[in-house]
UniProtKB/TrEMBL annotation:
Lineage: Bacteria, Pseudomonadati, Pseudomonadota, Alphaproteobacteria, Hyphomicrobiales
Transmembrane among keywords: yes
Protein name: Dipeptide ABC transporter
Keywords, ordered alphabetically: Cell membrane, Membrane, Peptide transport, Protein transport, Transmembrane, Transmembrane helix, Transport
Every ABC transmembrane type-1 domain range: 75-263
Length: 279
């Protein structure tokens, strides 16, 4: 663990990403304590500019709602959607990729054709259709993002498992009489965790962007404040109240940037070749 952190901390961008993400997570966790009132509640006159009043440092929106309160509660939605949809995508993609890479043959062909079917449709367009069919809600958004996000996971795991399938320790496990399921779970998958972790960090960032895009189009959960909704609601008054789009946009930018920087740092720390070069 000490060696991992040493390699990770060599990447200054990754350390900055950790700090930014920690701030976002802290704000999301403390949002109910910092802003006990609902982010939907009207608290002042509309279009109050930033720093005009001490209680509302980022101003108010077109309906007199506190912008900074919306940002804090929007962080909850973005992180929730990003994490849960990524976990769901991993739970779909890892088994499919592992089975395809381990067994090969017709199993590989069938599972990869199934994977390619989802990749032929643009992910954003498919997510819009799925959310529209199941009605906009946090559950349907998470499910839609998970459905469009798992194919890259399956392909990555398939490639890793295929490269590990012929290793000596796997052949020894087969000769010792271990079942295929045991070999996959105990011998193969643990050695694929490094690239999966790196991909997962990038998938969280992509999921946050997808959720923000869906909310911007009016397909977000109507009961939950999100950064995408805030930008979408402010697009008609962008000249009159620039801050309504600016601050949520900066929040999305910093969060996605932080996750990408962390992904780069994880790649440096977990990639054995890069680790040896660092020494």
């Amino acid at each position: 663990m000490a060696d991992f952190w040493k390699r990770f901390s060599r990447n200054r961008g990754a350390v900055i990403g950790i700090i930014i993400l920690a701030i976002v997570v802290l704000v999301a966790v403390l949002a109910p304590l910092l802003f006990p009132q609902s982010p939907w509640r009207m608290v002042q006159r509309p279009f109050l500019p930033p720093l005009a009043m001490e209680q509302y440092p980022l101003g108010t929106d077109a309906l007199g709602r506190n912008v900074i309160s919306g940002l804090a509660y929007g962080a909850q939605v973005s992180l929730l959607v990003g994490l849960v949809s990524t976990v769901a995508a991993l739970l779909i993609g890892i088994p499919i990729g592992a089975l395809a890479g381990y067994f090969g043959g017709w199993v590989d062909d069938a599972l990869m054709r199934f994977t390619e079917f989802f990749q032929t449709v643009p992910s954003f367009a498919l997510a819009i259709v799925l959310v529209a069919i199941f009605e906009p809600s946090i559950q349907s958004i998470i499910a839609a993002i998970a459905i469009v996000s798992w194919p890259p996971v399956a392909r990555l795991v398939r490639g890793e498992v295929m490269s590990l399938r012929s290793r000596e320790y796997v052949e020894a496990a087969i000769l010792s009489g271990q079942t295929n399921l045991t070999i996959i779970l105990r011998q193969v998958l643990p050695n694929t965790l490094s690239p999966i972790i790196v991909l997962a960090s990038l998938m969280v960032a992509t999921a946050i962007l997808l959720e923000s895009s869906l909310s911007f189009l009016g397909l977000g959960d109507p009961n939950m404040m999100s950064w995408g909704y805030m930008i979408g609601a402010a697009r008609t008054v962008i000249r009159q109240a620039w801050w309504l789009s600016f601050f949520p946009g900066v929040a999305i930018l910093l969060t996605v940037l932080a996750l990408n920087l962390i992904g780069e740092g994880l790649n440096d720390a977990l990639n054995p070749r890069l680790a040896r070069r660092g020494k």
